[in-house]
Amino acid sequence: MMLMELDNGVWCSYQQCHFSPDAWRNYTIIGTEGRIENLGDDPPNCAIRVWNHRTGYKEAGDIAYPMEPTQGTHGGADKRIVDELLRYARDGGSVRTSPIAARNSVATGFLATESLRGGGVPRDVPPVDPHLLAHFEPVDTAAVC
Question: 115 phi and psi, to 5 degrees?
Answer without folding.
Answer: -65, -45
